[in-house]
Design brief:
The complex is a heterodimer. By secondary structure, chain A is of the alpha+beta class. Chain A is 31% helix and 23% strand. In chain A, helix 3 (106-119) crosses helix 4 and helix 9 (294-303) packs antiparallel against helix 11. The model of chain A is unreliable at 6-20 (pLDDT under 50). The chains are: A alpha+beta, B mainly alpha.
Chain lengths: 513, 314
């Protein structure tokens, strides 16, 4: 009997901590080791991913995405579409407070949307179709469109360079410049930014939580379990990993995939795979130079064997997939393999024939890339060898990232540049198919389809349009997609409830004792 | 002496003007610009142009240069593009970690380098001397960041004695502060101590061959007195020069070591400013380093005067 009691006691002792660890717990300071500093804390101002990752704990948007990346309301309560799809009436949630204590109303939403439409890359694309935005009453905003739009809600929900709702006074104080106060309605509020030390956020006690449960996407209930979040810039990858190993950080961003097996073997750590994250791509210059010739671009595509390229870029097979479609299989509404005809052809003979047809005479192909993102450089290096085997002369120029992003805007300076495209939720506004972006892939038929897609609200018709864009993408070689890649992040075991997602967030995660 | 100091101080002014102008022009000659960095990877050319106008970077270079001189004359280094604060404030925030790191590294370099040099010279051509010099050669050849990463692995990850990275400010207490600086100071200082050891050894060897050392020994002075009182004092001048140069090397090394150990100092400031093309910060820090370097050189020259009377009477 005594033994039984002891055994029961021992069992209960074993069981209690496990139970306690699985119930969310308030408290603690989350230390997140980030790859660097955000260039700005104004979400309207920059498309930098790290700005979105940090600031969307502070700011919120009218809409966000569910787990299938479809728009659902966030600060909006509901919306109706009338006038043949030309009028969106958005009802705002009541009693949503900004971090300065004031209630969010249409008086804040209207100027926020207008500023976003004027400043942000996505906003500008959408605002071409917007006639006016008006506040009908404190809780109702009406957006009048010139034509129906299938992209408006996707755009309003986009996290990157998103339509954050700021208080009107903050925007008035900023004028034409960046905002100087970082106030939103989010679950965490901004406290301080000590450059190269940390960005400190604390729980916003008056946060207006949505009532729906979190659905595994970005919507629903967002709970701030941590008392504080410290975003710590740790540029050296080895130090991020060492720090999460010793417990100095709870989370380490972007660790190389070849560390995966080691991390998996460490009991204190949890490997997190963000799948999908983005594509690795080479963007040919359609405006000027040798790549402006379609036959040469087709030769470029024909010469490539994507497996060795992706393997060199990423390393571990669990972190990439050979996928030629423009949208991810995870985006069921947009994913299709129709039209994906020229992916990974491994055909140097065809490439040579195309080059001969094009009259290519060994003009050097200037490919600008960077080692700051080593996957870009490694992919370019292998692709270069494959191109050379097909008769191309390639001049691979390694630049720093700041130089690359400037030079790629100058058509006379390059023929190909390396980049990656992160997940875009709406096909019509995805950077990967825009004409008005470095590389200048402007194709009459494609532009017409993109314009149609912007207006199209029927998902089936949109998918058909995507399939046609895909076919043009491969025939015209708009960009060269090498494949999808996933990122590797590491958390400590005591950090619970964290979901690795294309758009990083820390709400609904907690620290077990 | 006073005239000498004043003359040297006046000579500093044109040096600073040249440094200010060259740093202004060089960073702008570098391709890349802050507007495209702020706008981010998915921005179009028009977005970037809009950003340039907002930042005032669309003005012609000479106009910007004259504005920069004008501000400098008023002692204003301008505002950082990324940090949303005046450059001088950004620099002051970063001064503490870098000053402490440099001071501790210097201490490590001197406390290890000089004794090793003296002992090597004294036991010239013995196994001790050769092994010290082999170590010094190794020290000079190992890059400080590699030493830093090895130390992180050993003392941070395996043994868990010291924090792997990060900086605890002085205000959090002396011990946490020291703990966060031990590894970086060793990584930086040990490499420099190798240089100091080699210079001290060779100049000690020269001095030990002098007649007055022989006469000191023959009149029965103890070896201690000969080495430390007579030889070292005369051999220290070249070492002093090297310590001055070491400071410059330390500032350069701090750029790397601060990145490895994630210390928010001037090194990190300048690295991130260069990578992001934060022009005002790059200019400000380069100018500050030039001022400091010139000041240290002046101090070294004054130290010569104090130690070596021959220089004083020349």
């Amino acid at each position: 009997m005594k033994r039984l009691i002891l055994a029961a006691l021992a069992l209960s002792l074993l069981a209690t901590p496990a139970l306690a660890q699985d119930t969310p717990r308030m408290g603690g300071v989350l230390k997140a080791a980030m790859i660097g500093e955000p260039p700005s804390l104004d979400l309207h101002w920059t498309t930098a991913v790290i700005t979105q990752q940090i600031t969307w704990h502070i700011y919120e948007t009218l809409f966000t995405y569910d787990k299938n990346l479809q728009p659902i309301p966030m600060l909006a309560d509901s919306h109706t579409v009338t006038d043949g799809g030309r009028r969106y009436t958005i009802t705002l949630r009541k009693n949503v407070k900004f971090h300065n204590g004031k209630e969010m109303t249409s008086a804040d939403v209207v100027p926020s949307l207008q500023r976003w439409g004027k400043m942000s890359t996505t906003g500008k694309a959408l605002w071409k179709g917007v006639e006016a935005v008006e506040a009908k009453d404190p809780y109702t905003v009406v957006i009048h469109l010139k034509e129906p739009s299938g992209s408006l809600l996707f755009g309003l929900g986009s996290p990157n360079n998103g339509a954050a709702i700021y208080p009107k006074d903050v925007m008035a104080a900023a004028g034409e410049g960046q905002i100087k106060e970082f106030i939103g309605t989010g679950p965490y509020r901004f406290v301080e930014h000590k450059p190269d030390r940390h960005i400190k956020l604390v729980r916003f006690k008056e946060y207006a939580v949505r009532s729906e449960p979190a659905d595994g996407g970005y919507g629903g209930k967002r709970v701030a379990y941590f008392d504080e979040i410290l975003f710590i810039p740790v540029p050296d990858e080895a130090v991020r990993l060492a720090g999460v190993e010793t417990g100095e950080y709870h989370y380490a961003q972007t660790i190389k995939a070849d560390q995966y097996d080691r991390v998996k073997s460490l009991p204190a750590l949890e490997p997190q795979v963000v799948k999908p994250y983005g594509w690795i791509t080479a963007v040919p210059n359609h405006k000027q130079g040798v790549m402006a010739n379609k036959k040469v671009r087709q030769a470029f595509l024909a010469a490539l064997d994507m497996e060795p390229i992706m393997s060199a870029a990423i390393g571990n097979k669990a972190f990439y997939r050979l996928e030629g479609a423009l949208f991810y299989p995870e985006q069921a509404a947009f994913h299709s393999t129709s039209g994906v005809t020229g992916y990974s052809q491994k055909n140097p003979t065809k490439a040579k024939a195309l080059l001969a047809e094009a009259g290519y005479k060994g003009e050097p192909v200037r490919w600008i890339t960077t080692k700051e993102y080593d996957w870009m450089y490694n992919a370019a290096l292998v692709a270069k060898q494959q191109m050379e085997a097909a008769g191309f002369v390639v001049d691979l120029q390694v630049l720093d990232w700041a130089t690359l992003v400037q030079r790629r805007n100058k058509p006379e300076l390059y023929d190909i540049f390396s980049t990656g495209f992160t997940l875009g939720a709406d096909p019509a506004i995805a950077t990967s198919i825009q004409c008005n972006w470095p590389g200048w892939w402007c194709n009459e038929e494609k532009e017409r389809l993109v314009t149609e897609m912007l207006k199209e609200t029927d998902p089936k018709k949109r998918k058909a349009q995507i399939e046609r864009v895909q076919a043009i993408f491969y025939d015209d070689v708009g960009r060269v997609k090498f494949g999808d890649y996933f990122t590797f992040q590491v958390t400590r075991k005591e950090m619970r409830g964290f979901r690795p997602q294309p758009f990083l967030y820390f709400w609904n995660a907690w620290l077990a004792k | 002496m006073a005239v000498y100091v004043i003359r040297r101080l006046i000579a500093v002014i044109p040096v600073m003007l040249v440094v200010a102008t060259v740093s202004f022009v060089l960073i702008r000659l570098a391709p890349g610009d802050p507007a495209s960095v702020i706008a981010g990877p998915y921005a179009s050319a028009e977005d970037i142009a809009q950003m340039q106008r907002a930042l005032g970077l669309d003005q012609p270079l000479p106009v910007q240069l004259v504005k920069w001189w004008g501000r400098l004359a008023r002692g204003d280094l301008g505002d950082s593009i990324f940090l949303r604060r005046p450059v001088i404030e950004a620099i002051l925030e970063r001064l503490e970690p870098t000053l402490l790191l440099t001071a501790w590294s210097m201490l490590v370099a001197v406390l290890v380098g000089i004794p090793v040099g003296v002992i090597s010279a004294r036991h010239h051509n013995t196994v001790l001397d050769q092994s010290f010099m082999a170590l010094a050669l190794l020290g000079l050849s190992v890059p400080n960041f590699l030493l830093g990463l090895l130390m992180i692995l050993c003392f941070g990850v395996w043994l868990g004695w010291l924090p792997v990275a990060g900086y605890a400010a002085l205000e959090t207490g002396l011990w946490p502060n020291l703990r966060s600086l031990i590894m970086p100071a060793l990584a930086l200082g040990l490499v420099q101590s190798a240089l100091i050891a080699r210079i001290t050894r060779s100049s000690m060897l020269d001095v030990l061959r002098e007649q007055y050392i022989l006469s000191g020994r023959s009149k029965g002075l103890s070896e201690r007195t000969v080495i430390y009182k007579h030889a070292l004092k005369n051999a220290i001048i070249p070492t002093l020069t090297v310590i001055g140069i070491t400071f410059a090397l330390l500032v350069g090394g701090a750029v790397v070591i601060e990145t490895v150990f994630n210390i928010p100092g001037l090194g990190r400031l300048i690295i991130s400013a260069v990578l992001r093309r934060d022009y005002p910060v790059v200019q400000g820090v380069v100018l500050l380093i030039a001022v400091t370097y010139t000041a240290i050189n002046l101090l070294v020259d004054l130290a010569y005067l104090a130690i070596d009377p021959r220089i004083r009477f020349r």
